[in-house]
Amino acid sequence: MTEPLASVSAETSAAQEAELRRVWANPKGWRYWTSVNNTQIGLWYGSAAFIFMLFAGILALLMRLQLAVPDNDFLSADLFNQAFTLHGTVMMFLFAVPIFEAVAIFLLPSMLGARELPFPRLSAFGFWSFALGGVFVCGSIFFGAAPNAGWFMYPPLATDKQYSGIGADIWLLGLSFIEVASIAAAVELIVGIMKCRAPGMRINMMPLFAWYLLIVAGMILFAFPPLIAGDILFEMERMFDWPFFDAARGGDPLLWQHLFWIFGHPEVYIIFLPAIALMAMIVPTFAQRPIVGYSWIVLAAVGTGFLSFGLWVHHMFTTGLPQISLAFFSAASEAVAIPTGVQIFVFIATMLAGRVIFSLPMLFGAGGLAIFIIGGLTGVMVALAPFDWQAHDTYFVVAHLHYVMIGGMLFPVVAGIYYYYPLVNAQKLSARWGKIAFWLMFVGFNTAFFPMHLTGLRGMPRRVFTYPSDVGWNLLNLVSTIGAFIFAAGVTIIVIDVLRPKHREPKGEMNPWNAGTLEWISEPEENWGVRSIPIIKSRYPLWDQPELIDGIKAGRYYLPDAADGRRETLVTSVLDAEPLQCLRVGGTSLLTIISALALGGAFIALTFHWWILTALCAAVTLVAILIWLWTGTNEIPRQNLRDIGLGKQVPLYASGPASVGWWAVFITMAGDGTAYASLMFGYFFYWTIHPDFTAGLPGPGRIWPLMAAALFALAWLAMLFARSINTNGRMASVRLCLLTSTILTLAACASGLAGPYLYDMQPTAHVYPAIVWVIVLWTVLHGLVAVIMQFYCLASSFAGRLTAEYDADLHNVVLYWHFLVITALTSFGVLGLFPELR
């Protein structure tokens, strides 16, 4: 990594930059919305998330007006229930997670020294899915059809159609659609961080923001799928009367709580860790020194993410679980404070070791940490089972949640807005108005939420829309309402400051804070991450490599041009960031919008039981995605090698583990496997809580499930054989193997369905046949997806896109099959053998 800089004349550099601007330019007119560059998608994401946040804030103010005085009739009980359900839903699903996805998409390419993230079209697809799902869920309140059973949707209240109406379906299907966007973003971020770093940026030299986002994306991959699995069971009960949560027919409402909080508690840290990531970028800048204890803070972040998956039961201390479970999860809930404290102490040590410069970002960050510490202390209190039994479902928990969420997330987000706003238009926001906004928010927040601790200790339950005047809650509720409006005034000032016209104000420096990380080399008018991809030798390269900025902007590093007129970025090795491939990323396309709108249409039509429209939208989605894959991935290049500058050539095509597509499939299937494991958790949950799991009802037998498992195994072996002989160029044999595997897969799917069908397992009669049918359908649907993939490979072979040398699609399909065969063997082995082995 010590190559000398190439000498590039000013004329050549200007010509190269002009060509780059042409290749990476946004389309004009209506086609502007087909943009896929990271800057634009990040800004769209962030803008939509803040609009949803303001909507949720208005709902919160309406609730506080209702609770300001006793016996109030400002809101009806049903409208209040809709308001608090949507407030929690929007804040957790439509603001807290998407805002960090927005920041990541906006910042990561330049922060990593990359030209672009590897799947820009996937980011665009995620944004349109998120925006459409958010409008669908939020818009329901204007038609009196919003969900009204709480943002946690506990059965049996939420499964009661007479009470919850269509609102619960809107919540379940709308959020399932939104979760697709979150998982798409997680795939993009993990592959981007692992495989698209600048040469020299070894994994132990990544910016802390990238480390945190990598951990959070991994958490999303394992936290969101259990909720998707729960949504499937929930909607099957509401739509088809399959009794997963009906105790009278063998179901159990506690299964929903387990699946929801397996998602819900990591979700808190999925929100918190990126906020800490922003502080990890802000604190060193204003201390003007590198972070103290880089390795410690990385290990603490990993530890926090790991421990967060072992805490979910502390939301269920009052459900009658065994004492040993309470002790274990109480101890785990206490233990998570240790890595959290390490991160905070690292920031304090960095500030003490440097010379802190007072600034608005530091003011908001310090205020947020102070609030978060109070929330952490009350968190330790509710982690103790005896105290939780007293405070559970009271306003004490409401206060704790908001101290953690707003202190741990919203204040650092505002700090990040003031810190990174110069990257949007080379101007700072108003320091004077920012200070006013901070003190209004800080004072208003504590005025609003600190009294709720006392209200809760005095016995006020959550989720009540009014209260009598003689129970001693009047003054505390009035003070909380006044504080909420003071807090809202501070937020309003920030919104006005961001939106006000600034065209008459002079442009400032591109790096006004003298930060040391790479994101500050980008300029607002650029639509790529970096002008040329640099060689990195430090964690703070702008401080330690004084020649770096001039070299990047002069095109003296890797990929200084767009010689082939294509959007290109570098793929590097995971650990050492050595250049491996020149990746050609997708450009602007309508396919991202069409596929997102069609998929959203399928979810919306399913909500209203419009079956034909659901099928049509699903078909359009499938066709759009297939065209997207056919036209936008793994095309065969005209030449094998690309000169990337500095005398180095790398391949333009990669397959197998060297390909970013292979990594994307692996990561996606890891999330898919987590959802499947959650369904199997449901099967064994029922098996353990009932003395007679089957209730004397017939099972699918042994022959059909075991035959299905054997056929899936044979189909997998045929795919392995196809991949093996493809290396010899025997395309006729490859096609024969693909066709054989397709026939075996279809036979396996038919065998899997035959068992519960021939034994007349009625899913509405009892939970046992219902859970069997769900597991069979899940496995069969994945088998049908495999068939589509096999036909895709067959079509590629006839089109000349699948050859012995260019075999990325075949490698990716075989990788999918590895996961599928594990699923099939587990599913049909358990269904065929387990009830009889009890």
From TrEMBL:
Family recorded in the similarity comment: Belongs to the heme-copper respiratory oxidase family.
InterPro entries (UniProt xref): Cyt_c_oxase-like_su1_dom, Cyt_c_oxase-like_su1_sf, Cyt_C_Oxase_1, Cyt_c_Oxase_su1_BS, Cyt_c_oxidase_su1_bac, Cyt_c_oxidase_su3-like_sf, Cyt_c_oxidase_su3_a-hlx
Q: Where in the cell is it found?
A: Cell membrane
Name the principal localization, coarsely classed: membrane
Q: From what superkingdom does this record's organism come?
A: Bacteria
The Cytochrome oxidase subunit I profile domain covers 18-549
Segments spanning the bilayer are 41-63, 83-112, 124-146, 166-187, 208-229, 268-287, 294-314, 326-350, 362-387, 399-421, 433-455, 475-499, 585-604, 610-631, 652-683, 703-722, 734-759, 771-794, 815-834
Alphabetized UniProt keyword annotations: Cell membrane, Copper, Electron transport, Heme, Iron, Membrane, Metal-binding, Respiratory chain, Translocase, Transmembrane, Transmembrane helix, Transport
Give the way it sits in the membrane: Multi-pass membrane protein
Q: In which pathway does it act?
A: Energy metabolism; oxidative phosphorylation
Catalysed transformations (reactions): 4 Fe(II)-[cytochrome c] + O2 + 8 H(+)(in) = 4 Fe(III)-[cytochrome c] + 2 H2O + 4 H(+)(out)
What this protein is called in its record is cytochrome-c oxidase
Which EC class is the enzyme in? translocase
Question: Pfam families of this UniProt entry?
Answer: COX1
Name the EC number(s): 7.1.1.9
Return the PANTHER family for the record: CYTOCHROME BO(3) UBIQUINOL OXIDASE SUBUNIT 1, CYTOCHROME C OXIDASE SUBUNIT 1
